[in-house]
Amino acid sequence: MALWNLFRKEIKSIFPLFGFFAVAVVALHLIVLYKSAELQMDATMVLTLIVPYLFLVALAIGTGYYQLHVEWRTNSIYLLLSLPIRGWKVLAAKLAAVLSLLIATSIGIGASFTILVLRVMWEEVSTSEDWSELGPSLISLVLNLYWICLLVMLFLLIVVQFTFLCGQLVAKFKWLVMLSAFFGIIWLILRISPLLSDLLIWTPEIVIGNKESDMAFLHSGPFIVLGLLCVGLIALNGFIFEKEVEV
To answer: What pTM was estimated for this model as a whole?
Structure first.
Protein backbone atom coordinates (compact mmCIF):
# COMPACT_ATOMS: atom_id res chain seq x y z
CA MET A 1 0.00 0.00 0.00
CA ALA A 2 2.81 2.42 0.89
CA LEU A 3 4.53 1.71 -2.43
CA TRP A 4 1.29 2.35 -4.31
CA ASN A 5 0.77 5.63 -2.47
CA LEU A 6 4.30 6.73 -3.34
CA PHE A 7 3.68 5.82 -6.97
CA ARG A 8 0.47 7.88 -7.04
CA LYS A 9 2.27 10.81 -5.40
CA GLU A 10 4.98 10.75 -8.07
CA ILE A 11 2.42 10.47 -10.88
CA LYS A 12 0.56 13.52 -9.59
CA SER A 13 3.74 15.56 -9.24
CA ILE A 14 5.12 14.95 -12.75
CA PHE A 15 1.91 14.45 -14.74
CA PRO A 16 1.60 18.19 -15.61
CA LEU A 17 5.01 18.09 -17.34
CA PHE A 18 4.11 15.13 -19.54
CA GLY A 19 0.55 16.40 -20.05
CA PHE A 20 1.78 19.79 -21.28
CA PHE A 21 4.29 18.06 -23.55
CA ALA A 22 1.60 15.79 -25.03
CA VAL A 23 -0.63 18.81 -25.76
CA ALA A 24 2.35 20.58 -27.37
CA VAL A 25 2.99 17.58 -29.63
CA VAL A 26 -0.65 17.47 -30.75
CA ALA A 27 -0.41 21.20 -31.52
CA LEU A 28 2.76 20.54 -33.52
CA HIS A 29 0.99 17.80 -35.49
CA LEU A 30 -1.87 20.18 -36.29
CA ILE A 31 0.57 22.83 -37.50
CA VAL A 32 2.41 20.31 -39.67
CA LEU A 33 -0.92 19.06 -40.98
CA TYR A 34 -1.87 22.62 -41.93
CA LYS A 35 1.50 23.08 -43.67
CA SER A 36 1.68 19.56 -45.11
CA ALA A 37 1.39 20.77 -48.69
CA GLU A 38 4.60 22.76 -48.27
CA LEU A 39 6.64 19.99 -46.61
CA GLN A 40 8.25 16.91 -48.06
CA MET A 41 7.40 13.55 -46.54
CA ASP A 42 10.86 13.14 -44.97
CA ALA A 43 10.64 16.53 -43.27
CA THR A 44 7.14 15.72 -42.04
CA MET A 45 8.30 12.44 -40.51
CA VAL A 46 11.20 14.14 -38.74
CA LEU A 47 9.05 16.94 -37.32
CA THR A 48 6.13 14.77 -36.23
CA LEU A 49 7.89 11.61 -35.00
CA ILE A 50 11.64 11.86 -34.50
CA VAL A 51 11.73 15.32 -32.88
CA PRO A 52 8.88 14.63 -30.39
CA TYR A 53 10.39 11.31 -29.32
CA LEU A 54 13.84 12.86 -28.84
CA PHE A 55 12.32 15.59 -26.67
CA LEU A 56 10.34 12.95 -24.77
CA VAL A 57 13.54 11.07 -23.94
CA ALA A 58 15.15 14.30 -22.71
CA LEU A 59 12.03 15.11 -20.66
CA ALA A 60 12.02 11.68 -19.01
CA ILE A 61 15.72 11.83 -18.08
CA GLY A 62 15.35 15.38 -16.79
CA THR A 63 12.32 14.33 -14.75
CA GLY A 64 14.31 11.49 -13.17
CA TYR A 65 16.77 14.08 -11.85
CA TYR A 66 14.05 16.60 -11.01
CA GLN A 67 12.21 14.12 -8.77
CA LEU A 68 15.13 13.74 -6.37
CA HIS A 69 16.21 17.37 -6.64
CA VAL A 70 12.78 18.54 -5.47
CA GLU A 71 12.84 16.15 -2.49
CA TRP A 72 16.09 17.71 -1.26
CA ARG A 73 15.13 21.30 -2.13
CA THR A 74 11.81 21.13 -0.26
CA ASN A 75 13.22 19.01 2.60
CA SER A 76 10.55 16.37 1.97
CA ILE A 77 13.42 13.90 1.90
CA TYR A 78 13.12 13.76 5.71
CA LEU A 79 9.60 12.41 5.37
CA LEU A 80 10.65 9.78 2.83
CA LEU A 81 13.51 8.59 5.04
CA SER A 82 11.15 8.32 8.02
CA LEU A 83 8.69 6.07 6.20
CA PRO A 84 8.67 2.35 7.13
CA ILE A 85 9.62 1.38 3.59
CA ARG A 86 12.91 0.35 2.04
CA GLY A 87 14.90 2.93 0.13
CA TRP A 88 14.94 0.94 -3.09
CA LYS A 89 11.13 0.88 -3.06
CA VAL A 90 11.02 4.67 -2.78
CA LEU A 91 13.34 4.99 -5.77
CA ALA A 92 11.49 2.24 -7.66
CA ALA A 93 8.21 4.15 -7.24
CA LYS A 94 9.85 7.18 -8.84
CA LEU A 95 11.16 5.06 -11.71
CA ALA A 96 7.77 3.42 -12.23
CA ALA A 97 6.03 6.79 -12.38
CA VAL A 98 8.39 8.17 -15.01
CA LEU A 99 8.26 4.99 -17.10
CA SER A 100 4.46 4.85 -16.92
CA LEU A 101 4.07 8.41 -18.16
CA LEU A 102 6.82 7.83 -20.72
CA ILE A 103 4.93 4.85 -22.14
CA ALA A 104 1.58 6.67 -22.07
CA THR A 105 3.03 9.77 -23.75
CA SER A 106 4.88 7.76 -26.41
CA ILE A 107 1.69 5.90 -27.28
CA GLY A 108 -0.14 9.24 -27.37
CA ILE A 109 2.42 10.66 -29.80
CA GLY A 110 2.02 7.62 -32.03
CA ALA A 111 -1.78 7.86 -31.90
CA SER A 112 -1.72 11.58 -32.69
CA PHE A 113 0.64 10.97 -35.60
CA THR A 114 -1.56 8.20 -36.98
CA ILE A 115 -4.83 10.10 -36.65
CA LEU A 116 -3.71 13.56 -37.71
CA VAL A 117 -0.68 13.14 -39.98
CA LEU A 118 -0.50 9.61 -41.38
CA ARG A 119 -4.14 9.71 -42.42
CA VAL A 120 -3.33 12.55 -44.82
CA MET A 121 -0.06 10.99 -46.03
CA TRP A 122 -1.46 7.49 -46.38
CA GLU A 123 -2.21 7.62 -50.10
CA GLU A 124 1.38 8.63 -50.88
CA VAL A 125 2.87 6.15 -48.40
CA SER A 126 0.68 3.22 -49.47
CA THR A 127 1.61 3.58 -53.14
CA SER A 128 5.35 3.71 -52.44
CA GLU A 129 5.58 0.34 -50.64
CA ASP A 130 3.97 -3.10 -50.73
CA TRP A 131 2.55 -3.08 -47.18
CA SER A 132 1.14 -6.59 -47.46
CA GLU A 133 4.72 -7.90 -47.24
CA LEU A 134 6.42 -5.07 -45.37
CA GLY A 135 3.74 -4.56 -42.69
CA PRO A 136 4.39 -7.62 -40.45
CA SER A 137 8.14 -7.08 -40.49
CA LEU A 138 7.72 -3.40 -39.72
CA ILE A 139 5.42 -4.17 -36.78
CA SER A 140 7.94 -6.70 -35.43
CA LEU A 141 10.76 -4.17 -35.80
CA VAL A 142 8.83 -1.38 -34.08
CA LEU A 143 7.73 -3.57 -31.13
CA ASN A 144 11.24 -4.91 -30.56
CA LEU A 145 12.81 -1.48 -30.82
CA TYR A 146 10.20 -0.18 -28.40
CA TRP A 147 10.95 -2.59 -25.56
CA ILE A 148 14.69 -2.21 -26.15
CA CYS A 149 14.37 1.57 -25.92
CA LEU A 150 12.32 1.24 -22.72
CA LEU A 151 15.02 -0.98 -21.18
CA VAL A 152 17.72 1.53 -22.14
CA MET A 153 15.61 4.38 -20.73
CA LEU A 154 15.15 2.46 -17.46
CA PHE A 155 18.91 2.02 -17.24
CA LEU A 156 19.56 5.73 -17.91
CA LEU A 157 17.01 6.77 -15.27
CA ILE A 158 18.66 4.49 -12.71
CA VAL A 159 22.06 5.95 -13.60
CA VAL A 160 20.62 9.45 -13.14
CA GLN A 161 19.42 8.47 -9.65
CA PHE A 162 22.83 6.99 -8.86
CA THR A 163 24.55 10.15 -10.09
CA PHE A 164 22.37 12.43 -7.99
CA LEU A 165 22.75 10.32 -4.84
CA CYS A 166 26.54 10.27 -5.26
CA GLY A 167 26.44 14.06 -5.35
CA GLN A 168 24.69 14.09 -1.98
CA LEU A 169 27.52 12.10 -0.37
CA VAL A 170 29.74 15.18 -0.28
CA ALA A 171 29.28 18.72 0.98
CA LYS A 172 31.45 20.38 -1.69
CA PHE A 173 32.19 19.83 -5.37
CA LYS A 174 28.85 18.07 -5.85
CA TRP A 175 28.77 18.56 -9.62
CA LEU A 176 32.32 17.25 -10.01
CA VAL A 177 31.41 14.14 -8.03
CA MET A 178 28.19 13.71 -10.00
CA LEU A 179 29.95 13.96 -13.37
CA SER A 180 32.64 11.54 -12.20
CA ALA A 181 29.99 9.10 -10.96
CA PHE A 182 28.01 9.32 -14.21
CA PHE A 183 30.91 8.72 -16.57
CA GLY A 184 32.51 6.24 -14.20
CA ILE A 185 29.47 3.98 -13.99
CA ILE A 186 28.93 4.18 -17.75
CA TRP A 187 32.58 3.25 -18.38
CA LEU A 188 32.42 0.37 -15.90
CA ILE A 189 29.26 -1.06 -17.41
CA LEU A 190 30.63 -0.77 -20.95
CA ARG A 191 33.70 -2.70 -19.80
CA ILE A 192 31.98 -5.53 -17.97
CA SER A 193 28.86 -5.95 -20.14
CA PRO A 194 30.66 -7.69 -23.07
CA LEU A 195 32.35 -10.11 -20.67
CA LEU A 196 29.08 -10.99 -18.95
CA SER A 197 27.25 -11.22 -22.29
CA ASP A 198 29.76 -13.83 -23.50
CA LEU A 199 28.80 -16.00 -20.53
CA LEU A 200 25.19 -15.93 -21.79
CA ILE A 201 25.96 -16.96 -25.35
CA TRP A 202 23.68 -19.97 -24.83
CA THR A 203 20.56 -17.83 -24.30
CA PRO A 204 17.92 -17.71 -27.09
CA GLU A 205 18.23 -15.14 -29.84
CA ILE A 206 15.71 -12.36 -30.38
CA VAL A 207 14.06 -12.71 -33.79
CA ILE A 208 13.02 -9.57 -35.65
CA GLY A 209 10.87 -9.92 -38.78
CA ASN A 210 9.08 -12.95 -40.17
CA LYS A 211 9.68 -15.82 -42.55
CA GLU A 212 8.10 -14.01 -45.50
CA SER A 213 10.73 -11.26 -45.40
CA ASP A 214 14.24 -10.64 -44.16
CA MET A 215 14.79 -11.73 -40.56
CA ALA A 216 17.32 -10.37 -38.09
CA PHE A 217 18.67 -12.08 -34.99
CA LEU A 218 19.91 -10.33 -31.89
CA HIS A 219 21.84 -11.99 -29.08
CA SER A 220 19.70 -11.70 -25.96
CA GLY A 221 22.71 -11.81 -23.63
CA PRO A 222 23.43 -8.05 -23.61
CA PHE A 223 19.81 -7.27 -22.77
CA ILE A 224 19.72 -9.83 -19.96
CA VAL A 225 22.94 -8.33 -18.58
CA LEU A 226 21.48 -4.83 -18.83
CA GLY A 227 18.38 -5.96 -16.95
CA LEU A 228 20.48 -7.55 -14.19
CA LEU A 229 22.61 -4.42 -13.95
CA CYS A 230 19.43 -2.36 -13.56
CA VAL A 231 18.37 -4.55 -10.63
CA GLY A 232 21.82 -4.28 -9.06
CA LEU A 233 21.93 -0.50 -9.46
CA ILE A 234 18.46 -0.10 -7.95
CA ALA A 235 19.65 -2.07 -4.90
CA LEU A 236 22.83 0.04 -4.69
CA ASN A 237 20.85 3.26 -5.00
CA GLY A 238 18.51 2.08 -2.25
CA PHE A 239 21.47 1.37 0.03
CA ILE A 240 22.98 4.81 -0.60
CA PHE A 241 19.60 6.43 -0.11
CA GLU A 242 19.02 4.70 3.23
CA LYS A 243 22.46 4.52 4.83
CA GLU A 244 24.93 6.93 3.37
CA VAL A 245 23.30 10.16 2.27
CA GLU A 246 23.45 13.06 4.70
CA VAL A 247 20.38 15.29 4.38
So the answer is: 0.88
